[in-house]
Amino acid sequence: NAGVMQNPRHLVRRRGQEARLRCSPMKGHSHVYWYRQLPEEGLKFMVYLQKENIIDESGMPKERFSAEFPKEGPSILRIQQVVRGDSAAYFCASSPPGQGAHSPLHFGNGTRLTVT
Amino acid sequence: RKEVEQDPGPFNVPEGATVAFNCTYSNSASQSFFWYRQDCRKEPKLLMSVYSSGNEDGRFTAQLNRASQYISLLIRDSKLSDSATYLCVVNMLQTGANNLFFGTGTRLTVIP
């Protein structure tokens, strides 16, 4: 029973390139969340998605960042024209449907993005 | 004011000691509370949920005080393997989104 799978584990991009981070939720989970953790800081909520729907993107920067969770395949967090300040650990988490506010999240092992 | 605030520490304690962390939250309508543990450069992992009546899991005890809007975690008989950052997490359930707010974490080092 695989957990939340994220890839790649490490990603290096030059300034101006695009970064694509992938996340496959746990089996049976239909809710996906993306968080960002800057060095020495806490996790910051970015976006919450269900299949084919963005439910809450209040934590997403207005430009360059987008997320999707298609009907088939993993959730993708896309960062266009990366800048050094985008360097961080990006964690994906999932939760099962129907448990409302009381379901804890299961995290993937993260993608560490380094922008050079 | 931050949604969730924690003392960042670090807490350096000897093996066998008892240590307590506190966390305060700003939204009185918050519904769910959790403690997560994060090891260096790893993902957060759920340590325990926090219930209104308080709950215990082995050496770990979590308490919730809704009137004062704080959550605590008590670790008894500390082990070296308890060294980690402990994250206080609160579910604000804003706009129907099931999203969690994380504190910045309290770093614990247990010393032999």
Q: In brief, what are we looking at here?
A:
The complex is a heterodimer of chains A (116) and B (112). Chain A has 116 residues and is mainly β.
Question: How would you describe this structure to a colleague?
Answer:
The complex is a heterodimer of chains A (116) and B (112). Chain A is mainly beta. In chain A, 0% of the residues lie in helices and 48% in strands. Chain A is globular and about 40 Å long. In chain B, the strands form 2 sheets. In chain B, strands 2, 4, 5, 9, 10 and 11 form a 6-stranded mixed sheet that branches. Chain B has a 5-stranded antiparallel sheet with strand order 1-3-8-7-6, with no helix packed on it. Chain B is globular and about 40 Å long. The relative contact order of chain B is 0.34. The interface between A and B is medium-sized, with 28 and 25 residues.
Q: Give helix and strand order of chain A, one letter per element, not per position.
A: EEEEEEEEEEE
Biggest β-sheet strands, sense, barrel of chain A: 7 strands, mixed
Mean pLDDT of chain A: 91
- Unreliable stretches of chain B (pLDDT < 50, length at least 5) are none
What sort of overall outline of chain A do the alpha carbons produce when their principal axes are compared? globular
Radius of gyration of chain A: 13 Å
Largest sheet of chain B: 6 strands, mixed
Compute the number of strand runs of chain A: 11
- Determine the N-to-C terminus distance of chain B: 37 Å
The chain-level structural class of chain B is: mainly beta
Task: Decide which structural class fits the backbone of chain A.
Answer: mainly beta
The secondary-structure element order of chain B is EEEEEEEEEEE
Give the oligomeric state of the chains in this entry, treating copies of one chain as homo and distinct chains as hetero: heterodimer
Characterize the overall form of chain B: globular
